[in-house]
Amino acid sequence: MANPIWKKYVSLQMPIWLEWISNNPLVAHIEMLQRFILTHPYYIPNFKEDNQSTEILAQIFNNQDFINSLSPKGIDIWYHSNINELIDSLKIYKEKYPDINLIIELLIEYEWWFERTYSEFKKNMLIKHQSIVGNVK
Amino acid sequence: MGEFDDIMEKGKQNTTPNENRPPISTSNNNKKESPLSILDLLGESGALSSFDDKINPEMKSQVLIPLANLLDKYGYSETITTSSTTSNAINLVVLLNDVIPVIQGLSEYVAGQRNSLDKEDQQFLQEIMDAQESGDFSDLFIDETNLEDVSEESTPKNIHPILGEMPTIDLGDGKINWMQVLDPDGTVAEENRKKAMGITDLEELELLSLGEKRYLDTPNISLTSLEDLAISAGIPLEDVTSSDSHIIQKENINPPATIGGIDIINEDLVTDMMESVVFESEPIEASIEVFDDEEMEFVEELDVYRNKKTGEIYEVIDDSLLTDGVLGESAKGDEGGESFEEE
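Structure tokens for the assembled complex are given below, as produced in the milestone run.
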């Protein structure tokens, strides 16, 4: 059973991803990211879209609004999740959309790198979330 | 020299014409055929009409038709592979001028065109989303309605225990008008202004005119006098006062013992002190000066004279004192002027 947080995240993000894929050269982006990973294996990049090498990362992971919509329990589940659970949530789409399958293969191939990078990304997202929640309270 | 020199015959050129070689064909020598237009092919009865139907109308107008016109203009539809026109530098510039609008139209079309999801994809994704939302994981997400409630509750009014309700202060906005924060209605500032100007409220003026000026904060307590208490108790006032140990009756006052025997002030000591003071002080004659009237001016307010040069103030002394010889002979010698005593 897939992680419910990732399932909802993927279902919400999938239209955005497919539209981005149809308007951007996905294979070229994947190749760029592969080169980035191989040349910077221990470097944690910023999830900013202005960096072309990691633009696909921002497209996949960067959604602060979704994190802010999580309850404290949801935040806890999301924070302790891993990339494998994201891959499980993506598998339902890979039959219909081959491009999503390319992304899944990328995640599987460089899981070690995504796991480490995303853990750092989660910390930053959580700090932002706490600052926003703190301001609301 | 190369390594294949031995297989080549030196000093001999192949001058014999190759009969098997086909003659070089020139475009001018070709037989003129009826001109073939791409626009005609794209027309309704053309061979590419089926292809034309599948093309986006916007793309057709912006890209395809200008391109077909261009090809027809330069005869590319007839000899698409060879063209002597392009070899001419002058014609090349003309060609570029014609090509640029086509490229521009193509780039505008590509830039403005953005792929979006088909209805089928949208329906597919919506079905998956609906299926996943049916699960009982609502506690993992914040409901939007609850989120609005939280945001409304999260902004309580800023109430100070003494000053009452206060506006929200954001220190990041820069300079803060604390007077506006602490006295938003301006009542305190108005009271201070009235106090400074000596303005009294009309109500307070009315109380003053009626002689009822009183402090509102003072409790309204009236003390009953001793006479009223005595009358209410049915006891004469004399009995009350006589029995009060704090009240000293006149008949009980005894005259104090004679103090004649006690020498409180030693008269001899006082006399010595007075004499020393009198003789140590400056003799009064030395402080008398005589000035002309032009040197002095009279100050009416103080009833004194002031020296115009030095500004010192002098008191007028009656000349009779001088004539009586009280002040000595030295003062008499100064004739023609008034006598002044320096203050």
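Chain B touches chain A at residues 114-117, 121-122, 124-125, 128-129, 132-133, 135, 137, 139-142, 147, 150-151, 154 (CB under 8 Å). The beta strands of chain B are 158-160, 164-166, 288-291, 296-299, 304-307, 313-316, 338-342. Further analysis is deferred to the final report.
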